[in-house]
Every structure is written in structure tokens, then in C-alpha cells.
Task: structure prediction
Amino acid sequence: MFSVKTVALSSTQSFSDDIPATHRKHQAELDAMDLDEDEFGAGPSKRNIVTPGEVITSSKEYMRGHGTYVEEVNVVSSVTGTIERVNKLISVKPVRSKYVPEVGDLVIGRIVEVGPQRWRVDANGRQDAVLMLSSVNLPGGVQRRKIESDALKMREFLAEGDLLVAEVQAFFGDGAMSLHTRSLKYGKLRNGQLLSVPPQLIRRLKSHFHHIPPPCGPTGVDVILGLNGYVWVSNGTSQEKREGGEGFDSEGVYSDKNDDIPPEGRQAISTITNLIKLLAQEGIPLTDTLIEDSFNWVNQNQLPPGPLAPNETERMLAEVVGVDITA
Amino acid sequence: MATAFDRRRIPAPEISIPPIYEPLLDGEAEAGPSKRVDRANDEARPIFLKTGLISQANGSGYIESGGVKIACSVYGPRPKAPPYTPQGTLNLEVKFAPFASDPRGAPLRDTEPIHLSQLLTQSLIPAIQLDQFPKSSIDIYLLILESDTPSNVLSAGLTVSSAAIADAGIAMNGLGTGSVVLTDQNGEILVDPEESEEIALQSQAQAQGQGQGQGQGNGAGKLLVGALPALGKVTNLYMEGEVEVDQAIQMIEKAIAASRDTHTVLAQSLLEGALERGIGGEA
Result:
């Protein structure tokens, strides 16, 4: 027993001594170490990609950020992804992962459970999010105290399976997010369809509510880009109606009934959905202009309704996004 | 006789005829798992590895390594039912497809893989930073589509599950890889042995065990090493047979050397997976 133990140690030592340079060192290390001030905030072409266990740089000069850990004197990557550097802070942004929330993010979620004074919401994170009864607006529009009868009627407002758009308010100790819908922009979703894309493709934008005006359907199409990778595409409404202006139905906020959507409206919703799916499939970050441009392209080319043919997809991506997928 | 008839299965036709192949031309290589003729005794087996093939999983990997084919999918980190755990929990399940083993395994009977999944979990746990995922669980499912020996399944399973976990973007200390090393009766060390080589060892050992007393001959054995080659760490050692200490050290070192080669392939496939998603650019 004793002899085997010593054996294992010596072999481990010799093992780490002659680890090939390809495993331990990365071009990024050299790049980062000899960095000129001009190269500061390296652009996408300067970005480097690492795999777990790869040494990025020395921990004496740099601080470890997300996606890294310190092993002896080195900052080591813990995920596959691109190296991001802010001053002395090194982090690795994973190629693909669950949504990592930040306070103030706009997310779309689905109710999974109605609990005491709270809803549990699936928002594509590591943990289910929590929406407290005290952080929603109840019908009636005006701010009012929540009373016991509201707690008993929670399932009438939001039941299991309902979709909602909300904002990340705070975090609990274990990293689970607490949501709020205390704005007329937020709340229950209807009149549309949900699609799920990798959360990395949604950038933080000035606004995550977009309206694509007619000719995209008779009333246009609304798109909500949730930062957690959930995207809601619905029948278009006017801004006033959405945000509590004229024609806003304060009693209908928690309605379960879809409005009547004409076939052209449904057609427009699915066209936009298909376009977003195509863009996401090619790993293209989504923005409102990109979605609108690709719709305009489809409209100009007068393509038949339904999913794009493969050759049309190629053309659309090349002409709208400038991405060549044929290679 | 026909009482135990499982209606969920599609019955085979009563008569079946094996397909007839054209004879191979001279010098033409036969399709199938790589043979020892392709490589030296201390060379790791060439593998095929690809990530991201199972779209509904958070991360996935597929490996072909000799006579082993495994599809692995990773779900998580996802919320775990109470009780509270300060660390994440790793659930690993190994399943054999009925057609994965020869002879064909009985359907819906998967007691065999339990020790496989335990060994795999042991080898994998040091690779994952479970302390980052309180109250969460990470679920790994390995579906064995083709298998030869349990140790080859384990070593390929370890490699492919690290690939799938990395693909899911779960924080890891390093990429785990597995390798098998075998000392045959002539004292020859074979890295990543084929099924035939392992069977030869077993039958020889049996013959010797009957003929002579114990502790005779060169000693023969098999060793499975789970390693984190990037960090120079070993996560698991599993040994069968009887060899001298010096010989065992040599075997461990050869296994570690082979695991480094596997690691290069593993890291490369992850980078390719990232490039396919349009990330990384010229890097």
C-alpha cells in the first residue's frame, strides 16, 4: 500500500513536468502578456478561444473573472469559450451555457409552480426564478396593497404554464433570480408564440420590445427578445395599448383569451419566427434591425409563405447579414 | 413457449440471411474498428469525437473509439428537488442499447451498467466544479450504441462525457480523458487494447492459474486511468490482474502519455464545435 502511494506521486510529478506546450500554454497567454496599450480591448479578430483546463495567464498580473479559476500561480479556464479582458480582469465567455442573469435584465419565463405568495418561473437559468406576489401589478392598474384574498386568487392571475415577460429584480443567496413585473410593459403574454434560442445570441439592447410595422401582417408583429434566450413573437399592437396609454385594457392584463388574429397576422408571426430561427441556427446575434431587414428582404423578394427554401436561406443570409453559409 | 412475448418489440422475421459482400481487393483495408496494425503498442487509439449533435440537451457528445460507440447528453445545471445541497449533484446513467453488446442484450434489463456508472462518476467528479452549482443537479446520460470490453467503454465514456459537459458550458477544472493499458503474458505493454487482445490475456491467465501456483511468470494485468491531462492530475486508477510494482508504474506512465494524445483530440473537437457556432474566428 505504502509503495504504491509513492509511485503515484512520482508519476504525477513527471507527468506535469513534460506536458506539451499545446496543453499548458496558449497563444492568448503570450498575446496577453506582451500586450501593447494600442491593442487594449481586443476586437473580435483578436479574440482567442480556450478549452477547460487551459492556462490563460499568470495570476500574479491578472485577476480571475467568470469562467476561470486559479491553479497555483495560473489563471486557468474552466469553460470552452472566448477570452475576454477588461483591464486586469480575465474572464472566459462560454460558447454555450445556461442563461447567466444580471439585475435589470428583461427575461421571458414560464410559470412552473404556484406557491405561497410566490410563483416559480422557468427562465432558462440554473435555478428556477421566483416571482413574488408583492412584485406584480394586480388588475385595477393602480398600486394597491396585496391582501389575503389576492394570495388565494394567485392561480387566477398566473397559472402553471403561463408565459410572462419580467425584469430581474434581485438575486437570492443561491443565485436564483427574483423577478418583478411592476411596469405596464411587463406581464402575461398572449396572442403569439414562444421560441427558444441560445441566450448568448441576445445582446443587451436599449429596448427589448420591438414592433415590426405593416406590411408585416395587418397590425404588424411585436417581438420581445428576452435576454434568457426566450423570444416572444406576437400579433402587433400599438404602443399606447401596450404601455398603458389610450385603449389599454387594465382589467385584461391577466386574460387567458387570445384576441382574434386574422390569417395574415398569423402568417406574419410565423414568418418572423422562421426568420429568427434561421438567424439563430447560424449563430447570428439577434437585433431588431436585423429581424426587420430580413423581413423586408423576404417581402421584397415576394417569396411564398412558409419556411424559406435552402437556397433562399443562403441568399437571405448573404444579402442581409453578409454571412456565407455555403462554405 | 410463446407466453413471454413482448408486444412492444418488433419481432424479427423467421428467416434471415446474412448479407453477402464483395471480396476485398488486395491491400484494401477492411472497414470497422481500428486494428493494432495501424499503430504502435504504446500509441493511443484514434478516436472520432463530435459535440453538439443532440439538440435538445444542454450539451452533448458522440464518440467512436475502436469497437465502442457512445452518445452522451448532459442536462443541467437544473434545479434539484429539496433537500438543500450546498454543492451540485452529479447524476450519471449508463444505458446499453439492446444491440450494443454481442450477444444481443435482453431489452429493458440494465442492471449491468450500475458499476460502470459508479466508476465513471468517480472519475468525473474531480473534473467538475460542483461547488459552483448549489441546489442544482447535472444529469448525464450515456447511451452505449456499440461496445466491446467494459474498460474500453469506461475510457471512451469518460472522454465523451467530459466533451459533453464542456459543451454544456458547465465549469470544469479540466477535461477528463480515459485510457486503458494492458500488460500481456510476454510483458508487452499495450495501450488501448482491442477486445481480442484482452480476451487473449484472460484466457492465458486462466490457463496459467490452473497449471501453476500464483505469483509465477511475468504477471499480466489491465489498468484503467482517468486523468485530467491539462492539469497533470489523475482522477481514477482501476486495476485488474497481478503485475510487479515497476511494471505497474510503467503502465501508469504509458496510460498518462496516451491520455495526453486523447486530450489533444478532445480539445480540438471542442474548438471545432465552437467554430461551427461561428465563435472564435481566426483564433
